[in-house]
Amino acid sequence: MGTIRIMIKNLGPGLLFASMAIGTSHLVLSTKAGAQYGWIMIIPIVLANVLKYPFFEFGVRYTSITNKTLIEGYLNRGIGYLWFYAFITLFSTFTILAALYTVTAGLFINLFKMQGISISMVALGLFVFISTILIVGKYKFLEISLKFVISILFVALIVTTALVLFNGKTTAIVGFEPTPIFNEVGILFLIGLMGWMPTTVEASSWVSLWSIEKWKTQDKPSLRESLQEFNLGYFFTGLLAIFFMLIGWFTLYGTNTVLSDNSVQFADQVVQLFTTHIGPWAYIFIAVSAFATMFSTCMTAHDAVSRVSLDILDLLFPKQTTRQTKLNFAVTVLVLAVINYIVISVFSANMGNLVALATFVSFVVAPIIGYMNLKNVMSADIDPRFRPGSALRLLTYLGILFLSLFSLYYFWIVIF
Predict the structure, then answer these.
(1) What share of the chain is helix, strand, coil (3-state, %, to 5)?
(2) Which of 105, 145, 319, 399 could bond to 123 as cystine, CB 3.0-4.6 Å?
(3) In a domain, 16, yes or no
């Protein structure tokens, strides 16, 4: 019982990671995977979660031992490492948040039947509301509120999945032929799915920043306790991805239903596929759960990108005083909101282009950032006793090799 109490007390960075991960990769991509390709998609989902695990674990390990963020570690490895990560973060600034807010705005319009209002206007309202929460509530409020959101989401998804499995798989239409996976369209979808499953690899530094922030108000846990808390959150992200895939498979696979790239239409399809299979009574239950999923993801990602941006500026352009102040954080949150509102306005409701672009870049850079994280935990910054064991290092090399070869395979089928 003592171990459970300690784990609950230490809930924070791993919880925020889970909240941030259970978003587009789960609600959008995992559901589409099951709906379009069936049960076979459990393989890339599990592979992505297993092979990427070391990349994220190293973020927790490095920060717990050194009291430094992964980004500081990149600078210690060389200024080129930091500039590369800064470029990836800059790209994320214009894609990831815009994609997340677009999906969330579509769900909001669907939930409250606000068909006469545009995606960009709803997104603007979300930007204002979430920015206010982050600026006023700060990290502590973010952590506390997400404990409730994640708990409700997990229970809701378990109930939904159980009901879908109980009702059985939908009947395939006459003449149905499975969608091919290993063609250009299928490979592109796999790259998108694995690029953001469980989330983007650059988010490994987000966890380290949340850890530093949490320790400002609480005694620092041991390395073992930090890893336990993170592993719990990581396990649930993988489990929920499988739940979403099962729901898509059982309710849509074999019906030739194509999930829309338009965020409002997609939101309506997702909610309707649940209620059609379960019953109209489940509509509000499913709609609220889906919206809570994306809302919490927007909140955590917006907070993380703001903190990462300030940390990078501090390291690239050092000065006597740190930029990590309440005022600078507030300004950064607002600047990101404005930038991504403009991106959403330009792309309108076409969620597909935003998600495809963001996930493709995340997939291509994943093995590079994984290697950078490995360099951090195997460096002189860490006592040899606390470096990852041979099994974890082997898994890291397998992940880097697999993701690299898969990227090369995609470029080969596109070119030839």
Answers:
(1) 80, 0, 20
(2) 105
(3) no
**Residue-wise DSSP of 34-53:** HHHHGGGGHHHHHHHHHHHH
Q: pLDDT (tens digit, 9 = 90+) per residue, 349-395?
A: 555 666 666 667 777 788 888 899 999 999 888 888 888 889 999 99
pLDDT tens for each residue of 68-83: 888 889 998 889 999 9
Q: What is the CATH number of the domain that holds 323?
A: 1.20.1740.10
The number of distinct structural domains making up the chain is 1
- Cβ(302)–Cβ(336) under 8 Å? yes
In a domain, 212, yes or no: yes
Do 125 and 344 form a contact (C-beta atoms < 8 A)? no
| pTM of the predicted model as reported, rounded to 2 decimal places | 0.83
Q: Which domain holds residue 330?
A: 21-415
Helix axes 283-316, 326-347, angle to 10 degrees: 120
Q: Looking at the predicted structure, is the pLDDT value of residue 317 above 60? A: yes
Helix axes 13-21, 42-66, angle to 10 degrees: 150
Does residue 9 lie within any of the structural domains? no
For tokens 């592109």, the residue is 188
Is 346 a domain residue? yes
Residue 247 to residue 270: CA distance in whole angstroms:
10
